[in-house]
Automatic annotation (TrEMBL), chain A:
Required co-factors: [4Fe-4S] cluster
Assembly and binders: NDH-1 is composed of 14 different subunits. Subunits NuoA, H, J, K, L, M, N constitute the membrane sector of the complex. NDH-1 is composed of 13 different subunits. Subunits NuoA, H, J, K, L, M, N constitute the membrane sector of the complex.
Manner of cofactor binding, per the entry note: Binds 2 [4Fe-4S] clusters per subunit.
Compartmental location: Cell inner membrane; Cell membrane
Organism (species): Chitinophaga tropicalis
Name of the protein in its database record: NADH-quinone oxidoreductase subunit I
Listed transmembrane segments: none
Domain annotation 4Fe-4S ferredoxin-type: ranges: 39-71, 81-110
Gene3D superfamilies reported in the protein's UniProt record: 3.30.70.3270
Location, primary (coarse class): membrane
Amino acid sequence: MISHLRTMWLVFVHLFHRKVTIQYPEQRVPLPPRWRGRIVLTKDPDGGERCVGCYLCAAACPVDCIALQATENEEGRRYPEFFRINFSRCIFCGYCEEACPTYAIQLIPDFEMAEYKRQDLVYEKEDLLIDSQGKYPGYNFYNVAGLDAGVKEKGKGGNEEEPVDIKSLIP
Amino acid sequence: MQHVWIVLGVLFVFLNIAAGLIWVERRLLALWQDRLGPNRAGPLGLFIVLADTLKLFFKEDWIPPFADKWVFILAPTVVVASVLMGLAIIPFAPGIVVADLNVGLMFFLAMSSLGVYSIVLGGWASNNKYSLLGALRGASQMIAYEVFMGLSLMGVVMLSRSFNLTEIVAAQEKIWYVFLQPVGFIIFFIAGLAETHRLPFDIPEAESELIAGFHAEYSGMKFGMFFIGEYLGISLISAMTVTLFFGGWLGPAFLPPVVWFFLKTFLFIGLFILLRASLPRPRYDQLMAYGWKLLLPLVLANLLITGAVALWLKS
Protein backbone atom coordinates (compact mmCIF):
# COMPACT_ATOMS: atom_id res chain seq x y z
CA MET A 1 0.00 0.00 0.00
CA ILE A 2 2.75 2.45 0.98
CA SER A 3 4.78 1.43 -2.05
CA HIS A 4 1.75 2.00 -4.28
CA LEU A 5 1.29 5.49 -2.91
CA ARG A 6 4.99 6.15 -3.30
CA THR A 7 4.84 5.00 -6.92
CA MET A 8 1.91 7.28 -7.59
CA TRP A 9 3.70 10.21 -5.98
CA LEU A 10 6.87 9.60 -7.95
CA VAL A 11 4.90 9.41 -11.19
CA PHE A 12 3.03 12.58 -10.27
CA VAL A 13 6.28 14.44 -9.65
CA HIS A 14 7.20 13.74 -13.26
CA LEU A 15 4.69 16.46 -14.13
CA PHE A 16 7.40 18.96 -13.25
CA HIS A 17 10.31 17.22 -14.91
CA ARG A 18 11.81 18.55 -18.09
CA LYS A 19 10.13 16.99 -21.11
CA VAL A 20 12.24 14.97 -23.49
CA THR A 21 10.10 15.75 -26.51
CA ILE A 22 11.79 17.68 -29.30
CA GLN A 23 9.05 19.51 -31.20
CA TYR A 24 10.42 18.62 -34.57
CA PRO A 25 9.62 21.12 -37.26
CA GLU A 26 10.34 24.04 -34.90
CA GLN A 27 13.07 22.44 -32.81
CA ARG A 28 15.58 20.23 -34.48
CA VAL A 29 17.81 17.44 -33.33
CA PRO A 30 21.42 18.59 -33.41
CA LEU A 31 22.96 16.26 -35.97
CA PRO A 32 26.67 15.45 -35.75
CA PRO A 33 28.69 16.33 -38.88
CA ARG A 34 29.31 12.68 -39.61
CA TRP A 35 25.62 11.81 -39.51
CA ARG A 36 24.80 9.41 -42.32
CA GLY A 37 21.93 11.00 -44.19
CA ARG A 38 21.29 11.93 -47.81
CA ILE A 39 23.99 10.81 -50.26
CA VAL A 40 25.63 13.46 -52.45
CA LEU A 41 28.30 13.56 -55.14
CA THR A 42 30.90 16.22 -54.45
CA LYS A 43 33.10 18.25 -56.77
CA ASP A 44 36.77 19.16 -57.08
CA PRO A 45 38.03 22.57 -55.95
CA ASP A 46 37.99 23.58 -59.60
CA GLY A 47 34.45 22.40 -60.13
CA GLY A 48 35.01 19.07 -61.87
CA GLU A 49 33.18 15.96 -60.81
CA ARG A 50 35.14 13.86 -58.40
CA CYS A 51 33.48 10.59 -59.36
CA VAL A 52 35.60 8.48 -61.64
CA GLY A 53 33.02 5.80 -62.24
CA CYS A 54 34.97 2.96 -60.61
CA TYR A 55 31.79 1.09 -59.53
CA LEU A 56 33.24 0.42 -56.06
CA CYS A 57 30.29 2.11 -54.37
CA ALA A 58 27.84 0.03 -56.39
CA ALA A 59 29.82 -3.08 -55.51
CA ALA A 60 29.95 -2.20 -51.82
CA CYS A 61 26.28 -1.35 -51.57
CA PRO A 62 24.58 -4.15 -49.60
CA VAL A 63 21.14 -3.35 -51.00
CA ASP A 64 22.21 -2.66 -54.57
CA CYS A 65 20.64 0.75 -54.68
CA ILE A 66 23.42 2.45 -56.67
CA ALA A 67 23.51 2.20 -60.45
CA LEU A 68 25.98 4.00 -62.68
CA GLN A 69 27.62 3.84 -66.04
CA ALA A 70 31.19 5.08 -66.46
CA THR A 71 32.40 6.91 -69.51
CA GLU A 72 35.39 9.00 -70.54
CA ASN A 73 35.80 12.43 -72.06
CA GLU A 74 38.26 13.29 -74.85
CA GLU A 75 40.96 14.22 -72.29
CA GLY A 76 40.78 10.77 -70.79
CA ARG A 77 39.00 11.82 -67.63
CA ARG A 78 36.53 9.19 -66.40
CA TYR A 79 33.12 10.28 -65.13
CA PRO A 80 29.74 8.62 -64.71
CA GLU A 81 27.45 8.85 -67.67
CA PHE A 82 24.53 8.41 -65.32
CA PHE A 83 24.54 7.94 -61.60
CA ARG A 84 21.36 6.77 -59.94
CA ILE A 85 20.63 6.09 -56.28
CA ASN A 86 17.34 4.57 -55.30
CA PHE A 87 16.70 6.07 -51.85
CA SER A 88 13.69 3.88 -51.29
CA ARG A 89 16.22 1.03 -51.09
CA CYS A 90 19.11 2.84 -49.46
CA ILE A 91 19.79 1.91 -45.84
CA PHE A 92 22.26 4.75 -45.21
CA CYS A 93 24.99 2.37 -44.12
CA GLY A 94 27.76 4.53 -45.54
CA TYR A 95 29.64 1.65 -47.18
CA CYS A 96 29.67 3.53 -50.49
CA GLU A 97 31.39 6.45 -48.81
CA GLU A 98 33.98 4.11 -47.31
CA ALA A 99 34.56 2.40 -50.63
CA CYS A 100 34.96 5.59 -52.68
CA PRO A 101 38.61 6.09 -53.64
CA THR A 102 38.13 9.73 -54.69
CA TYR A 103 35.95 11.06 -51.82
CA ALA A 104 33.27 11.71 -54.40
CA ILE A 105 30.30 10.02 -52.76
CA GLN A 106 29.52 11.34 -49.29
CA LEU A 107 26.71 11.10 -46.76
CA ILE A 108 25.55 14.38 -45.27
CA PRO A 109 23.41 15.26 -42.21
CA ASP A 110 20.09 15.65 -43.97
CA PHE A 111 17.24 13.23 -43.56
CA GLU A 112 14.24 15.23 -44.77
CA MET A 113 13.72 13.37 -48.01
CA ALA A 114 10.05 12.41 -47.76
CA GLU A 115 8.16 12.16 -51.04
CA TYR A 116 4.60 11.40 -51.99
CA LYS A 117 5.57 9.13 -54.86
CA ARG A 118 8.04 6.31 -54.51
CA GLN A 119 9.46 7.06 -57.91
CA ASP A 120 10.54 10.48 -56.68
CA LEU A 121 12.96 8.79 -54.31
CA VAL A 122 15.11 7.69 -57.22
CA TYR A 123 17.78 10.40 -57.47
CA GLU A 124 19.58 11.00 -60.74
CA LYS A 125 23.04 12.47 -61.12
CA GLU A 126 21.78 16.05 -61.34
CA ASP A 127 19.94 15.53 -58.03
CA LEU A 128 23.00 14.05 -56.39
CA LEU A 129 25.71 16.42 -57.58
CA ILE A 130 26.29 19.33 -55.24
CA ASP A 131 28.41 22.40 -55.80
CA SER A 132 30.69 21.66 -52.86
CA GLN A 133 33.75 19.73 -51.84
CA GLY A 134 31.99 18.12 -48.89
CA LYS A 135 34.10 16.85 -46.04
CA TYR A 136 37.44 17.03 -47.91
CA PRO A 137 38.02 20.61 -49.06
CA GLY A 138 41.00 21.08 -51.36
CA TYR A 139 41.20 17.48 -52.42
CA ASN A 140 41.47 16.86 -56.12
CA PHE A 141 41.92 13.26 -57.17
CA TYR A 142 43.40 14.02 -60.59
CA ASN A 143 45.94 16.30 -58.89
CA VAL A 144 47.47 13.36 -57.03
CA ALA A 145 46.78 10.66 -59.61
CA GLY A 146 49.56 9.75 -62.01
CA LEU A 147 47.25 10.27 -64.92
CA ASP A 148 47.01 13.24 -67.26
CA ALA A 149 43.31 13.85 -67.61
CA GLY A 150 43.30 17.54 -68.34
CA VAL A 151 43.91 18.64 -64.73
CA LYS A 152 47.69 18.61 -64.76
CA GLU A 153 50.41 17.19 -66.94
CA LYS A 154 52.13 13.93 -66.19
CA GLY A 155 54.73 14.34 -63.44
CA LYS A 156 53.47 17.80 -62.39
CA GLY A 157 51.15 16.67 -59.57
CA GLY A 158 51.73 16.81 -55.83
CA ASN A 159 54.21 14.19 -54.47
CA GLU A 160 54.90 13.16 -58.01
CA GLU A 161 58.25 12.86 -59.76
CA GLU A 162 58.88 13.50 -63.44
CA PRO A 163 58.37 10.32 -65.46
CA VAL A 164 61.51 8.30 -66.07
CA ASP A 165 62.65 7.93 -69.69
CA ILE A 166 62.76 4.14 -69.86
CA LYS A 167 64.53 4.27 -73.23
CA SER A 168 67.58 6.04 -71.75
CA LEU A 169 70.43 4.68 -69.62
CA ILE A 170 71.57 8.09 -68.33
CA PRO A 171 70.84 8.40 -64.61
CA MET B 1 -39.58 22.69 -18.98
CA GLN B 2 -36.71 23.16 -16.57
CA HIS B 3 -36.43 19.38 -16.28
CA VAL B 4 -35.84 19.07 -19.99
CA TRP B 5 -33.09 21.65 -19.83
CA ILE B 6 -31.43 19.85 -16.93
CA VAL B 7 -31.57 16.53 -18.76
CA LEU B 8 -30.16 18.04 -21.92
CA GLY B 9 -27.54 19.95 -19.96
CA VAL B 10 -26.34 16.86 -18.11
CA LEU B 11 -26.23 14.87 -21.33
CA PHE B 12 -24.35 17.64 -23.13
CA VAL B 13 -21.86 18.26 -20.34
CA PHE B 14 -21.06 14.63 -19.64
CA LEU B 15 -20.83 13.49 -23.24
CA ASN B 16 -18.45 16.37 -23.84
CA ILE B 17 -16.44 15.51 -20.75
CA ALA B 18 -16.25 11.92 -21.91
CA ALA B 19 -15.00 12.99 -25.33
CA GLY B 20 -12.68 15.60 -23.87
CA LEU B 21 -11.15 12.98 -21.62
CA ILE B 22 -9.50 11.51 -24.72
CA TRP B 23 -7.39 14.64 -24.78
CA VAL B 24 -7.07 14.97 -21.01
CA GLU B 25 -5.90 11.40 -20.59
CA ARG B 26 -3.41 11.50 -23.43
CA ARG B 27 -1.97 14.81 -22.30
CA LEU B 28 -1.72 13.80 -18.64
CA LEU B 29 -0.24 10.39 -19.41
CA ALA B 30 2.29 12.08 -21.66
CA LEU B 31 3.22 14.64 -19.03
CA TRP B 32 3.74 11.91 -16.47
CA GLN B 33 5.98 10.08 -18.90
CA ASP B 34 8.07 13.20 -19.58
CA ARG B 35 6.48 13.70 -22.99
CA LEU B 36 4.20 16.45 -24.28
CA GLY B 37 1.35 14.49 -25.79
CA PRO B 38 -0.96 15.68 -28.58
CA ASN B 39 -0.40 19.45 -28.87
CA ARG B 40 -0.61 20.11 -32.59
CA ALA B 41 -4.25 20.13 -33.69
CA GLY B 42 -5.85 23.34 -32.53
CA PRO B 43 -5.13 25.22 -29.30
CA LEU B 44 -3.21 22.95 -26.91
CA GLY B 45 -4.03 20.05 -29.21
CA LEU B 46 -7.69 20.10 -28.18
CA PHE B 47 -8.90 19.27 -31.67
CA ILE B 48 -7.43 15.78 -31.27
CA VAL B 49 -10.86 14.97 -29.82
CA LEU B 50 -12.50 16.02 -33.05
CA ALA B 51 -9.91 14.23 -35.15
CA ASP B 52 -10.23 11.05 -33.13
CA THR B 53 -14.01 11.07 -33.36
CA LEU B 54 -13.93 11.70 -37.10
CA LYS B 55 -11.42 8.91 -37.50
CA LEU B 56 -13.67 6.52 -35.58
CA PHE B 57 -16.63 7.48 -37.76
CA PHE B 58 -14.73 6.84 -40.96
CA LYS B 59 -13.24 3.52 -39.93
CA GLU B 60 -14.67 0.36 -41.36
CA ASP B 61 -17.50 -0.73 -39.11
CA TRP B 62 -16.90 -4.43 -39.37
CA ILE B 63 -19.10 -7.14 -37.97
CA PRO B 64 -17.31 -10.48 -38.06
CA PRO B 65 -19.23 -13.12 -40.01
CA PHE B 66 -18.87 -15.53 -37.07
CA ALA B 67 -20.33 -13.05 -34.58
CA ASP B 68 -23.81 -13.10 -33.13
CA LYS B 69 -24.86 -10.06 -35.11
CA TRP B 70 -27.65 -8.43 -33.09
CA VAL B 71 -26.07 -9.00 -29.69
CA PHE B 72 -22.79 -7.77 -31.12
CA ILE B 73 -24.42 -4.52 -32.19
CA LEU B 74 -26.40 -4.14 -28.98
CA ALA B 75 -23.54 -4.73 -26.53
CA PRO B 76 -21.68 -1.39 -26.81
CA THR B 77 -24.84 0.62 -26.26
CA VAL B 78 -25.52 -1.04 -22.91
CA VAL B 79 -22.52 0.43 -21.13
CA VAL B 80 -23.17 3.96 -22.38
CA ALA B 81 -26.86 3.77 -21.60
CA SER B 82 -26.41 2.35 -18.12
CA VAL B 83 -23.75 4.86 -17.15
CA LEU B 84 -25.81 7.76 -18.48
CA MET B 85 -28.74 6.45 -16.43
CA GLY B 86 -26.45 6.39 -13.41
CA LEU B 87 -25.64 10.05 -13.95
CA ALA B 88 -29.33 10.90 -13.59
CA ILE B 89 -29.32 10.74 -9.79
CA ILE B 90 -26.28 12.90 -9.15
CA PRO B 91 -27.02 16.31 -7.67
CA PHE B 92 -24.69 18.82 -9.29
CA ALA B 93 -25.92 21.75 -7.25
CA PRO B 94 -28.98 22.42 -5.09
CA GLY B 95 -31.91 21.78 -7.40
CA ILE B 96 -29.85 20.67 -10.41
CA VAL B 97 -30.54 16.95 -10.53
CA VAL B 98 -32.29 14.93 -13.18
CA ALA B 99 -34.08 12.50 -10.86
CA ASP B 100 -34.05 13.17 -7.13
CA LEU B 101 -34.84 9.55 -6.24
CA ASN B 102 -35.25 8.52 -2.63
CA VAL B 103 -33.34 5.33 -3.50
CA GLY B 104 -30.74 7.17 -5.53
CA LEU B 105 -27.79 5.23 -4.19
CA MET B 106 -29.46 1.91 -4.96
CA PHE B 107 -30.26 3.12 -8.44
CA PHE B 108 -26.64 4.04 -8.96
CA LEU B 109 -25.45 0.61 -7.80
CA ALA B 110 -27.99 -1.11 -10.04
CA MET B 111 -27.01 0.93 -13.09
CA SER B 112 -23.30 0.50 -12.59
CA SER B 113 -23.80 -3.26 -12.31
CA LEU B 114 -25.79 -3.31 -15.52
CA GLY B 115 -22.71 -2.03 -17.32
CA VAL B 116 -21.18 -5.48 -17.08
CA TYR B 117 -23.75 -6.80 -19.55
CA SER B 118 -21.92 -4.80 -22.14
CA ILE B 119 -18.70 -6.71 -21.48
CA VAL B 120 -20.31 -10.11 -21.16
CA LEU B 121 -22.55 -9.77 -24.21
CA GLY B 122 -19.83 -8.13 -26.29
CA GLY B 123 -17.33 -10.82 -25.41
CA TRP B 124 -19.83 -13.60 -25.96
CA ALA B 125 -21.20 -12.29 -29.23
CA SER B 126 -17.71 -11.77 -30.66
CA ASN B 127 -17.32 -15.54 -30.76
CA ASN B 128 -13.60 -15.21 -30.18
CA LYS B 129 -11.69 -16.99 -27.46
CA TYR B 130 -9.90 -13.90 -26.20
CA SER B 131 -13.12 -11.94 -26.12
CA LEU B 132 -14.82 -14.71 -24.23
CA LEU B 133 -11.99 -14.86 -21.70
CA GLY B 134 -12.27 -11.10 -21.30
CA ALA B 135 -16.00 -11.36 -20.77
CA LEU B 136 -15.47 -14.11 -18.23
CA ARG B 137 -13.01 -12.01 -16.31
CA GLY B 138 -15.22 -8.96 -16.55
CA ALA B 139 -18.14 -10.85 -15.08
CA SER B 140 -16.24 -12.35 -12.19
CA GLN B 141 -14.49 -9.08 -11.44
CA MET B 142 -17.81 -7.27 -11.43
CA ILE B 143 -19.39 -9.80 -9.09
CA ALA B 144 -16.43 -9.68 -6.72
CA TYR B 145 -16.20 -5.92 -6.59
CA GLU B 146 -19.89 -5.10 -6.79
CA VAL B 147 -20.44 -6.79 -3.44
CA PHE B 148 -18.24 -4.53 -1.40
CA MET B 149 -18.85 -1.48 -3.52
CA GLY B 150 -22.37 -1.55 -2.15
CA LEU B 151 -21.20 -2.44 1.33
CA SER B 152 -18.60 0.33 1.40
CA LEU B 153 -21.37 2.87 0.82
CA MET B 154 -23.56 1.57 3.62
CA GLY B 155 -21.43 3.42 6.16
CA VAL B 156 -22.38 6.67 4.45
CA VAL B 157 -26.00 5.61 4.45
CA MET B 158 -25.84 4.83 8.17
CA LEU B 159 -24.38 8.24 8.94
CA SER B 160 -26.76 10.22 6.76
CA ARG B 161 -29.79 7.94 7.28
CA SER B 162 -30.77 8.33 3.67
CA PHE B 163 -30.36 6.80 0.23
CA ASN B 164 -31.16 10.12 -1.37
CA LEU B 165 -28.01 11.73 -2.70
CA THR B 166 -29.21 15.29 -2.20
CA GLU B 167 -29.75 14.52 1.47
CA ILE B 168 -26.39 12.76 1.71
CA VAL B 169 -24.65 15.86 0.37
CA ALA B 170 -26.67 18.10 2.68
CA ALA B 171 -25.65 15.90 5.61
CA GLN B 172 -22.00 16.68 4.87
CA GLU B 173 -22.51 20.37 5.63
CA LYS B 174 -20.43 20.09 8.82
CA ILE B 175 -17.83 17.51 7.89
CA TRP B 176 -17.13 15.55 4.73
CA TYR B 177 -17.71 11.82 4.99
CA VAL B 178 -14.17 11.10 3.82
CA PHE B 179 -13.06 12.03 7.34
CA LEU B 180 -15.69 9.87 9.00
CA GLN B 181 -15.47 6.99 6.54
CA PRO B 182 -11.88 6.92 5.24
CA VAL B 183 -11.89 3.15 4.81
CA GLY B 184 -15.23 3.32 3.05
CA PHE B 185 -13.88 5.96 0.69
CA ILE B 186 -10.73 4.04 -0.20
CA ILE B 187 -12.62 0.81 -0.76
CA PHE B 188 -15.32 2.53 -2.78
CA PHE B 189 -12.70 4.12 -4.98
CA ILE B 190 -10.90 0.81 -5.53
CA ALA B 191 -14.21 -0.87 -6.31
CA GLY B 192 -15.02 1.99 -8.66
CA LEU B 193 -11.75 1.41 -10.46
CA ALA B 194 -12.66 -2.23 -10.89
CA GLU B 195 -16.21 -1.30 -11.85
CA THR B 196 -15.03 0.88 -14.73
CA HIS B 197 -12.36 -1.75 -15.49
CA ARG B 198 -9.73 0.93 -15.70
CA LEU B 199 -6.07 0.27 -15.22
CA PRO B 200 -4.72 -1.17 -12.98
CA PHE B 201 -7.89 -3.31 -12.89
CA ASP B 202 -8.41 -3.63 -16.63
CA ILE B 203 -8.15 -7.39 -16.65
CA PRO B 204 -11.13 -7.86 -19.00
CA GLU B 205 -9.14 -5.85 -21.54
CA ALA B 206 -5.56 -6.75 -20.64
CA GLU B 207 -4.02 -5.87 -23.97
CA SER B 208 -0.82 -7.73 -23.11
CA GLU B 209 -2.56 -11.06 -22.47
CA LEU B 210 -5.97 -10.91 -24.16
CA ILE B 211 -5.05 -8.47 -26.96
CA ALA B 212 -8.02 -6.26 -26.20
CA GLY B 213 -10.25 -8.72 -24.39
CA PHE B 214 -13.96 -8.25 -24.83
CA HIS B 215 -13.72 -5.59 -27.54
CA ALA B 216 -11.07 -7.28 -29.65
CA GLU B 217 -13.50 -7.70 -32.55
CA TYR B 218 -14.98 -4.22 -32.38
CA SER B 219 -14.07 -1.41 -34.70
CA GLY B 220 -15.31 1.99 -35.73
CA MET B 221 -17.91 3.71 -33.66
CA LYS B 222 -18.91 0.50 -31.88
CA PHE B 223 -15.46 0.47 -30.37
CA GLY B 224 -15.92 4.18 -29.78
CA MET B 225 -19.01 3.43 -27.71
CA PHE B 226 -17.00 1.17 -25.40
CA PHE B 227 -14.47 3.95 -25.19
CA ILE B 228 -17.03 6.62 -24.39
CA GLY B 229 -18.66 4.24 -21.94
CA GLU B 230 -15.36 3.82 -20.14
CA TYR B 231 -14.78 7.56 -19.92
CA LEU B 232 -18.37 8.13 -18.83
CA GLY B 233 -17.81 5.47 -16.18
CA ILE B 234 -14.77 7.35 -14.92
CA SER B 235 -16.78 10.54 -14.75
CA LEU B 236 -19.63 8.76 -12.99
CA ILE B 237 -17.41 7.14 -10.35
CA SER B 238 -15.57 10.41 -9.80
CA ALA B 239 -18.82 12.30 -9.47
CA MET B 240 -20.17 9.68 -7.07
CA THR B 241 -17.00 9.80 -4.98
CA VAL B 242 -17.33 13.56 -4.74
CA THR B 243 -21.01 13.36 -3.91
CA LEU B 244 -20.71 10.69 -1.27
CA PHE B 245 -17.42 11.49 0.41
CA PHE B 246 -16.27 14.97 -0.56
CA GLY B 247 -19.36 17.01 0.04
CA GLY B 248 -20.62 17.24 -3.54
CA TRP B 249 -21.33 20.85 -4.39
CA LEU B 250 -20.38 22.11 -0.91
CA GLY B 251 -17.47 24.47 -0.71
CA PRO B 252 -16.51 28.02 0.20
CA ALA B 253 -18.95 30.53 -1.20
CA PHE B 254 -16.61 32.39 -3.55
CA LEU B 255 -17.31 29.86 -6.28
CA PRO B 256 -20.77 28.67 -7.34
CA PRO B 257 -21.72 25.13 -6.21
CA VAL B 258 -21.59 23.65 -9.73
CA VAL B 259 -18.02 24.83 -10.14
CA TRP B 260 -17.02 23.22 -6.86
CA PHE B 261 -18.63 19.99 -7.92
CA PHE B 262 -16.82 19.82 -11.24
CA LEU B 263 -13.55 20.97 -9.72
CA LYS B 264 -13.60 18.06 -7.30
CA THR B 265 -14.79 15.67 -9.98
CA PHE B 266 -11.91 16.58 -12.26
CA LEU B 267 -9.50 16.04 -9.39
CA PHE B 268 -10.69 12.46 -9.17
CA ILE B 269 -10.64 11.98 -12.91
CA GLY B 270 -7.00 13.06 -12.70
CA LEU B 271 -6.46 10.51 -9.95
CA PHE B 272 -7.94 7.82 -12.20
CA ILE B 273 -5.45 8.73 -14.90
CA LEU B 274 -2.58 8.93 -12.41
CA LEU B 275 -3.43 5.40 -11.30
CA ARG B 276 -3.26 4.28 -14.89
CA ALA B 277 0.08 5.98 -15.33
CA SER B 278 1.68 4.52 -12.24
CA LEU B 279 0.37 1.11 -11.27
CA PRO B 280 0.84 -2.17 -13.15
CA ARG B 281 -2.01 -4.58 -13.72
CA PRO B 282 -2.31 -7.36 -11.12
CA ARG B 283 -2.74 -10.94 -12.20
CA TYR B 284 -6.32 -12.14 -12.52
CA ASP B 285 -6.20 -14.44 -9.47
CA GLN B 286 -4.40 -11.76 -7.45
CA LEU B 287 -7.22 -9.37 -8.20
CA MET B 288 -9.80 -11.89 -7.09
CA ALA B 289 -7.87 -12.77 -3.93
CA TYR B 290 -7.42 -9.08 -3.17
CA GLY B 291 -11.13 -8.49 -3.55
CA TRP B 292 -12.56 -11.43 -1.66
CA LYS B 293 -9.91 -12.01 0.99
CA LEU B 294 -8.78 -8.49 1.86
CA LEU B 295 -11.30 -5.87 0.85
CA LEU B 296 -14.50 -7.74 1.68
CA PRO B 297 -13.50 -8.50 5.33
CA LEU B 298 -12.19 -4.96 5.63
CA VAL B 299 -15.43 -3.42 4.44
CA LEU B 300 -17.47 -5.67 6.70
CA ALA B 301 -15.35 -4.63 9.68
CA ASN B 302 -15.79 -1.01 8.67
CA LEU B 303 -19.52 -1.53 8.49
CA LEU B 304 -19.58 -3.22 11.90
CA ILE B 305 -17.61 -0.46 13.58
CA THR B 306 -19.60 2.31 11.90
CA GLY B 307 -22.84 0.66 12.97
CA ALA B 308 -21.62 0.20 16.52
CA VAL B 309 -20.49 3.81 16.80
CA ALA B 310 -23.69 5.05 15.24
CA LEU B 311 -25.76 3.05 17.75
CA TRP B 312 -23.54 4.18 20.61
CA LEU B 313 -23.93 7.82 19.65
CA LYS B 314 -27.70 7.38 19.37
CA SER B 315 -28.17 5.89 22.82
